[in-house]
Amino acid sequence: MNLAFSAAEEAFRQEVRAFLAANVDGPMREMVRTGMRPEPAEIQAWQRRMHAQGWSAPTWPREHGGTGWSPTQYFIYETEAARAYAPVQPHQGLELIGPIIFTYGSEAQKAKYLPRILSGEAWWCQGYSEPGAGSDLASLKTRAVRDGDHYVVNGQKIWTSYAQAATNIFCLVRTEVKPRKQEGISLLLIDMDTPGIRVRPIITLDERHHVNEVFFDEVRVPAENLVGEEGRGWGYGKVLLDRERGISAAGALRLAQFVRVVKERAAAVRDSGSALLAQPDFRGKLAQIEVEMLALEGMSLRTLADAEAGVDSGPRGSMLKIRWSELVQRITELWAEALGTDAALMEPYTGVEAADEMPHAMAAYLHMRVTTIYGGANEVQRNIIAWRALGL
Ligand SMILES: Cc1cc2nc3c(=O)[nH]c(=O)nc-3n(C[C@H](O)[C@H](O)[C@H](O)COP(=O)(O)OP(=O)(O)OC[C@H]3O[C@@H](n4cnc5c(N)ncnc54)[C@H](O)[C@@H]3O)c2cc1C
After folding, report:
1. Residue 309, number of CB atoms within 10 A of its CB
2. CB 318 within 8 A of CB 384
3. Which residues belong to the active site?
4. Does any ligand 1 atom lie closer than 6 A to the CB of residue 126?
5. pTM, entire model
């Protein structure tokens, strides 16, 4: 792996830096810097800017409207985005279902769905988990029964992120009951305004409305919305989960922005006469995190280099997911520690005008507890590593 950037890549870095400087406006920057998670409408607004620049899909090939960037260019973009406190892009459409549609979908599905993902008009949510099917996803029970030109869907999904704002949901459903539970599962694309869909909020411990229960009651979905072949959904779903873990590589590159905020805060806070940042115990913890963050960046680069060379990186997506999620939890913990008793101030999300991180650090700290659960719990990732890397 060559760690030096070429002159063309350095020129690209300057182009990205200039774009971000001109387009990440003050309120947006402060929102990301202070740990507030942008709402879907704000992320969609950012996606429109990226789209206008021709950068709406950094990981997609050109033929489907992507940038066709090399993994190195993607690395450069994400590193600069962290530096500029740019918001993330709407990943469920761009990173999860979009690539499945352009790989396995029909021409009609590509024409109908991809342009609206690129432009940010569509907001997709992921209907995988059910009350009895999380880690053991193949136990899912939501049924889809063929009735003429439609599937009739009945069942329930849970923990569906931003279903309240979504225009579409991609769902794993059971189209046939087979002795092997991974068989008989299909992937359906469903418009959220289809009659019979009900969304019920779940408020999480950071006091935000992020996740939901989604109920399907006799929901009629056109059969043309089936992705690929009926009964092959488990295979498509697994491809998609691997991609979701790969998103951790991008997450790893954004860790630096949290570390910077913690440093700024710890330099400003004085404890027993000296800045917190100067105190050995705090410094030690921060240094340990920075070292591990650099190692993780190296691992992300390696994964991207493997992708560029067409090499299978094995369970490295799972490794990245474990390391990234644990590190982001430790960094936000240190952030709360740096704020001391001020961290106890937790205010509900107030929109882009709030500029101080104090009311939001605790919410960010609490929210980040989820990273070791979603996208496949870390215990499950460890099982994958044991199986795929160690042959256990
Ligand atoms: C905030 C949030 C957002 C989410 N967003 C979405 C979304 O948009 N769409 C979606 O479909 N899902 C979403 N999820 C669901 C998420 O993917 C599941 O919560 C996750 O897969 C774990 O499933 P579970 O909650 O049913 O826990 P369980 O599977 O019941 O696991 C409970 C505990 O047991 C452990 N465990 C389970 N099986 C094993 C095993 N074989 N070996 C070792 N340990 C095991 C787990 O690691 C965990 O600690 C979200 C979850 C949260 C909390």
Report:
1. 10
2. yes
3. 244
4. yes
5. 0.93
